[in-house]
Amino acid sequence: MSEPEAPKIEFPCANYVVKVVGSDTGSFREDVLAVMLKYDPKLDQSRIQYRPSSKGTYLSISYWITAESEAQLKTLNEELRSDSRVKTVL
């Protein structure tokens, strides 16, 4: 049985969700937001969702951005993952 193809994204893609999970320490929220704004200066900050872990150690943050290209998403992912507090980027 063949593998199903991954869905194709048509760019620009409004309302593309990026989820970042990391250690909720120091200026984590502000630092991640600064990276997100670098890749989407028109990011609607009123839509950002924060979900702390049950013990409050980690924080999941959801952002809705306008994805302009596959290259943009790749470099965004790489920059977010370069922060040692970031555990996962989805």
Say how many strands there are: 4
Work out the radius of gyration: 14 Å
Given as residue ranges, the uncertain stretches (5+ residues, pLDDT < 50) are: none
Largest sheet properties:
4 strands, antiparallel
Helix content: 25-40%
Strand content: 25-35%
Q: What is the CA–CA distance across the termini?
A: 27 Å
Summarize model confidence as the mean pLDDT. 94
Structural class: alpha+beta
Give me the side-by-side strand order of the main sheet.
Answer: 2-3-1-4
The topology string of helices and strands comes to EHEEHE
**Count of DSSP H/I helices:** 2
Overall morphology: globular
In words, what does this structure look like?
Helices cover 27% and strands 32% of the residues. With 90 residues, it is an alpha+beta fold. A four-stranded antiparallel sheet has the order 2-3-1-4, with helices on one face. The radius of gyration is 14 Å and the shape is globular. The two termini are 27 Å apart.
Question: Characteristics of this structure?
Answer:
4-stranded antiparallel sheet, globular, 90 residues, alpha+beta
Please give a quick description of this structure.
This protein has 90 residues and is α+β, with helices and mostly antiparallel strands. It has two helices and four strands; from the N terminus they run βαββαβ.
Write the layout of secondary structure elements.
Elements: E1 13-23, H1 28-39, E2 49-52, E3 58-67, H2 70-81, E4 86-89
Antiparallel strand pairs: 1-3, 1-4, 2-3
Helix pairs in contact: 1-2
